[in-house]
Amino acid sequence: MTTTTTEATAPATAEAYKIAVIGAGGKMGMRVSNNLVKTNHDVSYSENSPAGQERVTAAGRSLTDSETAVKDADIIVLAVPDLALGPVTAQLVPQLKSGAIVLTLDPAAAYAGLLTKRDDVIQAVAHPCHPSVFLQRTTPEEYADTFGGIAAPRTPSRPSSPTTSPRRRSSRRPCAPSTLPSSTCTGSP
Q: What phi and psi, each to the nearest 5 degrees, are found at residue 24?
């Protein structure tokens, strides 16, 4: 198996990183990889399931084994099932270079303390299907949009829709006053 270097389509001034996507053929791995292929980063794709391997190669990407992919990687994206995060980090984290960033796509294993850690490796957690914790929510619809996409906060590149989804839950729900405005909560003290 070989490592694929993506074609540079990002501005030449952007810093390029060596990135390893572990679980590249799964649902989230394919989504992440589809975005990374548009950058000038050096991306390695690793997948252990035959069906996932087929998806990666059908997308025109080459596969590499995980150990080779993470060897000199700056960023390691773990797009693997939650239950696999513990064993996968136990296998791969000891092999990472100092200063590497390990990005998991779901906080459950990290919150439960199941991930292998090293003092010189940075751990980060982000779930691409949940609303951003960095955007300010201002409307009841944005607060009620637990999983993002229905009433996501507006950004210059993504205007909000003027219509409301029929699947949207009530905008009033039990909550701590410190997390939502009282007008959005039921039973606020």
A: -65, -15
Lowest mean pLDDT among 44-53, 88-97, 142-151: 142-151
Angle value at C-alpha 125, between 120 and 128, nearest 5 degrees: 145
Q: ∠ CA(89), CA(95), CA(97), 5° rounding?
A: 110
In a domain, 8, yes or no: no
With b for 16 or more beta-carbon neighbours within 10 A and e for fewer, the 95-127 pattern comes to ebeeebbbbbbbeebbeeeebbeeeebebebee
Same structural domain, 40 and 107: yes
Q: Is the pTM of this model over 0.85?
A: no
| pLDDT tens digits along 72-100 | 999 999 999 988 999 999 999 999 999 99
Residues 6 or more apart in contact with residue 95 via CB below 8 angstroms? 67, 70, 71
Tell the burial category of 186 from Cβ atoms under 10 Å away from its Cβ (0-12, 13-18, 19+): exposed
Residues 114 and 78 in one domain: yes
- Range of the structural domain that residue 173 is part of: 135-189
Total of domains in the chain: 2
